[in-house]
Amino acid sequence: MNLPTKQADGSGRFYEYVIDNIRQMIADGELQAGQKLPSERELAEKFNVSRVPIREALKILEYMGVLDSSPGDGTYVKNTSAQSLVSKMDFSFDATADTIRDLLELRIVLETFAAYHAAQRRTDEDIASIQKLLRDMREAKKVNDGTEESVQNLRKLSHGFHQALVRAAHNAVLSSVYEYLYELLDISRQFTINNSGISYSSIVAHEALFSKVIEGDAEGARQCMEEHMEDVRYNLKSTMGTDHPGQKAAFG
């Protein structure tokens, strides 16, 4: 493969730089459908970036249908069609910039609504399900060794918590909309959970929110979720390079 010709623009959005170069390699025929990509470490060295933007770029390209990730095997080129590389990539650039913020705003609307109604409508089954997720989250944090597998497990548990809370609201339309948009919402989460997974303070925030749900305090649950999402918003700004006062702990 030739060395990448496009350079990071200094804005801190190195994942866009990686996406752009992988896109160009596919368009130029340097990467073919079915071909395995180099490892994250090799890609990081090639593009002269850390592994974090490499993971972000691969995740977005996978969602867009350009790449396919096989756990324990690697990442492969899935689609090299012009439609995939042009229209989907155009969307992915929106998704990695302004649309990411739009998705976060959508999360705030949906999840504060869900928290409020979950406190009013949760069942014993909902409570048991969320309690287990929180226990598993704490255990996973204790044994987190920083490997990709550990980080992905923490992310999965955090995502599961938010999904369970939406289900506990027992609003069929909300659940349907949330499930439909989940893949898009997941893009925003990958930017708000850093490469160490989630922080203990984030777990505490999840637990405080759950306490309000158990108590049946709808307004308290809504406020807890709103505060949690404000921390997520701050972390997103830091991650995407728009604020630089010192990045806060990861949330999701």
Could you explain how this protein is built, in words?
This protein has 252 residues and is mainly alpha-helical. The protein has two domains: 12-78, Winged helix-like DNA-binding domain superfamily/Winged helix DNA-binding domain (Arc Repressor Mutant, subunit A, Orthogonal Bundle), CATH 1.10.10; 84-239, Four Helix Bundle (Hemerythrin (Met), subunit A) (Up-down Bundle), CATH 1.20.120.530. It has ten helices and two strands. It has helices spanning 14-27, 40-47, 51-63, 82-95, 98-121, 124-143, 148-168, 172-192, 200-215, 218-239; strands at 67-70, 74-77. A two-stranded antiparallel sheet has the order 1-2. α1 (14-27) runs antiparallel to α4 (82-95) and α6 runs antiparallel to α9 (200-215). The longest helix is centred in the middle third of the chain and has 24 residues, at 98-121. It is elongated and about 60 Å long. The two termini are 37 Å apart. Residues 1-12 and 242-251 have low confidence and may be disordered. It holds the Pfam family GntR. This is HTH gntR-type domain-containing protein. InterPro entries: GntR_C, TF_FadR/GntR_C, Tscrpt_reg_HTH_GntR, WH-like_DNA-bd_sf, WH_DNA-bd_sf. Residues 12-80 form the HTH gntR-type domain. Keywords: Coiled coil, DNA-binding, Transcription, Transcription regulation.
How many separate helices? 10
CATH architect. name of the largest domain: Up-down Bundle
Rg, please?
Answer: 19 Å
Spatial order of strands in the largest sheet: 1-2
Helix/strand/pairing category: mainly alpha
- How would the global form be characterised? elongated
Q: Which CATH class of the largest domain is shown?
A: Mainly Alpha
